[in-house]
Write a structure and sequence with these properties.
273 residues, mainly alpha, Rhomboid-like fold, protease, Rhomboid-like_sf
């Protein structure tokens, strides 16, 4: 019997949906291009496209720029001149504009290669089942809404902050929250005789999620990691402070929004024995 000359098709090493691959390429590409910019131009880019809550406090909250500058200057010795933070506040608040687009654009900027690559790994892990579940459009809608939610929550918690806040972590946190609705749900048998993949499972109700040990462990680890990186900041792991408030804001948006955009029905409530 002659042997076929055709070789079996090889499975790709990274079998990511196009939307996830595109997102990673954009994030990595933007950070790579920034390495080609001068320090002055990159600084201006960050200032114009990152979230700076004090801008919103001045534009929408009625706070005067002089109040913020004076608070940052504090009791500094007048002979030492203006403190660096106060000088930054004077610079970013000079035009008293809100820069509303930064509620979204900050998510495309990162502070280091470690920052962008870590976010891309989590994006691949949690964005993939979401794209496979409800497609590119809803995936990008969820990501963008989570990014905005993270920016708003961060600004509410730090209204007078003048340091720029950047990174896609809030969007990724929203993806984590959305995926927790179904990734740990029990598998079902499909008519063709196979078990459902995680992205095919019916989402659980909040009460069932609260009783699901895997969900609780996942959320516990996630919140613990946010605490560690925000307040402990292990040496060698991070090179900048972590905007844990943005993570929480993005997570809450993903958790609340997902049931409204999920194309699959909810799993029937479990009846206790």
């Amino acid at each position: 019997m002659p042997l076929s000359s055709e070789r079996p098709a090889r499975e790709p090493i990274f079998n990511l949906p196009a939307a996830v691959t595109l997102s990673i390429v954009i994030l990595v590409g933007i950070h790579a291009l920034r390495q080609l910019l001068s320090e002055e131009f990159d600084f201006k880019l960050i200032i114009d496209w990152a979230v700076i809550p004090a801008r919103w406090a001045v534009a929408f909250g009625g706070v005067q720029p002089d109040e913020i500058v004076s608070g940052l200057q504090g009791a500094a010795n007048p002979q030492e001149g203006v403190s660096p933070l106060a000088a930054l506040a004077q610079y970013v608040l000079a035009d008293q504009e809100a820069y509303p687009w930064t509620a979204l654009t900050y998510a495309f900027l990162h502070g280091s290669w470690a920052h962008v690559l870590i976010n891309c790994v989590w994006l691949a892990a949690f964005g993939t089942p979401l794209v496979r579940r409800f497609g590119m459009g809803r995936f990008f809608g969820l990501a963008l809404a989570s990014a905005v939610g993270g920016a708003v929550f961060y600004a509410l918690m730090n209204p007078l902050q003048v340091l720029p806040m950047i990174g896609a972590s809030a969007a990724v946190s929203g993806m984590m929250a959305a995926a927790s609705w179904f990734m740990f749900a029990p598998a079902d048998w499909l008519p063709e005789g196979r078990l459902t993949q995680p992205h095919e499972r019916l989402r659980e109700g909040l009460a069932d999620m609260a009783r699901n040990r895997q969900v609780l462990i996942f959320l516990g680890v996630w919140f613990a990691a946010n605490y560690v990186f925000a307040f402990v900041q292990p040496i060698g792991v991070t090179d900048a402070s972590i905007a844990w408030e943005a993570h929480i804001g993005g997570f809450l948006v993903g958790l609340v929004l997902f049931p409204f955009i999920d194309p699959l029905p909810r799993r029937p409530s479990r009846i206790p024995a």
